[in-house]
Here is the input.
Amino acid sequence: MSSRRVAAVAGFLATAIAAPAYAQAYQCQVPRSVSVPEVAREGPVRQVPVRGYTLALSWSPEFCKGREGQAAQRMQCSGRNGRFGFVVHGLWPEGRGTWPQWCPTARRVSPAEVRRNLCMMPSAALAARQWTKHGSCMVAKPETYFKVTRILWNSLRFPDMDRLSRQEGLTAGAIRERFLLANRGWRADAVGVHLDRRGWLEELRLCYGRDFRPTKCDARRYGARDSAPVKIWRGL
Here is the structure.
């Protein structure tokens, strides 16, 4: 992805936002220093043309359920660095019927770049893996990958998830409707809602075309049907 494309993304999203966008990280405190682990490739190299993108947003209270004491998840789950709602799992390039991954690169994410993004993606290990597995198939530098991710992330607003979690008869369709009310220009079929086997919300997967405009998700990314009942864990 060229610098011209990055500028185009920023320009489009600037015109699409009606009001300041707020992420859901409450009182996020970034540690003074971070260490970035090396990432071992898992799975085959797959270099195919990029035809779109998915911004995967993890619902942090559900992810942290049972992980509060794990050292590897301290930033996100301990509560010492703030409380998190939605966080970025990753920005994933999509191909036709498959996706590119693990494209060869010698570049690594720097500690400074990880710190810059910790309130959005609160894990150094996750940031390193997302760049190596996905970002390397999109752009030449990790800084560009995270810049594009931040542009998309900062363009979003979120419904009141605490209020939604208390709604009787909550469905995946209701979550999509509330997301659309908060984000002008989005369409319901571009919002994937992913649940665990017991119906708890795990993730939103937002589908974009090559031009970074919302586009219809395929079945793999769309997830739960509108009628599916949903529960939302609020945390301890």
Q: What stands out?
A: Residues 3-16 form the longest helix (14 residues). The mean pLDDT is 90.
